[in-house]
Amino acid sequence: MSDTWLVVGLGNTGPGYSRNRHNIGYMVVEELASRHGATFKTHKAKALIATLRLPVGGHKLILAKPSVFMNLSGGPTAALAKFYNLQPDHVIAVHDEIDIPFDTVKLKQGGGEGGHNGLRDISRTLGTKEYFRVRAGVGRPPGRADAASHVLRDFSTAENKNLPFLIDNSADAVELLVTDGLLEAQGKFH
Asked: In the beta sheet, which residues pair with residue 183?
């Protein structure tokens, strides 16, 4: 059993997207890197990666921010999994989730993609849906507003007050998933 995990933060590359709801995955892996003093560097798999070891259990985390647009996240994810010789059960995708209220974190393994094109591409390139997901709730848009436009907007002023807690909790969820397993992490965050 490998003690190495690939944690892929989903987002869109480029400064114009950096504070969008869709980029919460990038924000979470940046928080994990910051906590452990890891720095990102360019990898040939079209991603920025940072490597660290968790103090509890000594698990190695490869944090990744694909250097492509969200809908193409699968290529870098599959390439990194292959490079590090990791099976899908050691891959964690951290992503925004509109079907969960803002400031809520949920975890699961497998299942559908819920219309999330980044997850759909990862499932396609890994050849399975059986990887882990840390789902950071960004909530649905108000009324009948378009969901795609909603996730490509920055967090609101009110949301920005609680955004650090969502990022922190999501990073905690990744660490707990790796050290204690899915059921323990779900028990804490669900």
From this structure: none
Residue 34 belongs to what domain range?
A: 4-189
- Distance, in Å, from the CA atom of 63 to the CA atom of 27, rounded to the nearest integer, reads 11
Give me the torsion for CA of 117, 121, 122, 128, rounded to 10°. Answer: 110
Decide: helix, strand or coil at residue 68: coil
Q: Is 22 a catalytic residue?
A: yes
Model-wide pTM > 0.70: yes
> From first to last of its 190 residues, what are the pLDDT tens digits of the chain?
579 999 999 999 998 999 999 999 999 999 999 999 999 999 999 999 999 999 988 999 999 999 999 999 999 999 999 999 999 999 999 999 999 999 999 999 999 998 899 999 999 999 999 999 999 999 988 888 888 899 999 999 999 999 999 999 999 999 999 999 999 999 999 9
Q: Are strands 60-66 and 4-9 parallel, antiparallel or unpaired?
A: parallel
Q: Point out the catalytic residue in the list 22, 43, 95, 116.
A: 22
Domain count, the chain: 1
DSSP 153: S
Give the CATH number for residue 71.
Answer: 3.40.50.1470
Sheet of strand 132-137: strand arrangement: 41-43, 47-53, 60-66, 4-9, 91-97, 132-137, 105-109
